[in-house]
Amino acid sequence: MNNAFAIRPAEDSDVDWLAACAIAMAWETERKRLDPATLHAGIAAGLADAAKARYFIATLDTSVVDAETLAVPVGTLMLTSEWSDWRNGDWWWIQSVYVPPQHRRQGVYAALYRYVERLARDSESVIGLRLYVEKENAVAQRTYESLGMSDAGYLLYQDWFAEGAS
What are φ and ψ of residue 26, in 5° steps? Predict the structure, then answer.
């Protein structure tokens, strides 16, 4: 099935749906349970300040479906920015990608990716797109490679200061 999708910036009214996606993604990918109050506050903070994050939501295109079906989100991603002194520009990091199971393998993520790729290419300050993916998530890796992304050759290390962090 190959649908057409409309991409829009997320709004304050999308917080509950974005939180549900994040909760589902954390469980599916890492078997982690997120604290709903912290998550809602984090998403709300991102929506309120584009310097922190920008969220985008895919819906079915109006020319393909009726207005009721159009209102149903079918995927999301979040962008954050990282300054590169080496390149004198910003990397945009794709994060919090989620497509509900019933909408997967239909081109939702590709539509989201192409949308933010176009925004990035149209911005003089953006030098590229990056994301991280679980080492074992071969399906996602193939998806990213099919869109022209490649393994950057880095491992991710962290020193997390949250109590009881894992």
Answer: -60, -40
Q: How far apart are the C-alpha atoms of 144 and 117, rounded to whole Å?
A: 12
- List CB contacts of 58: < 8 A, sequence separation 6 or more: 5, 6, 7, 73, 74, 75, 76, 99, 108, 111, 112
Pinpoint the alpha helices (H) of the chain. Answer: 15-30, 36-48, 67-70, 108-122, 138-146
Pairing mode of beta strands 73-84, 5-9 = unpaired
pLDDT digits (tens, 9 = 90+) for 55-114: 999 998 766 555 555 568 999 999 999 999 999 999 999 999 999 999 999 999 999 999
Residue 164 lies in a domain: no
The domain that holds 81 is classified in CATH as 3.40.630.30
Tokens 């989100």 found at = 73
Q: What is the pTM of this model?
A: 0.88
Cα(63)–Cα(105) distance, integer angstroms: 20
* Residue-range definition of the domain harbouring residue 99: 5-146
152 is a domain residue: no
| Structural domains in the chain (count) | 1
Q: What SS3 class is residue 74?
A: strand
Residue 111 lies in a domain: yes
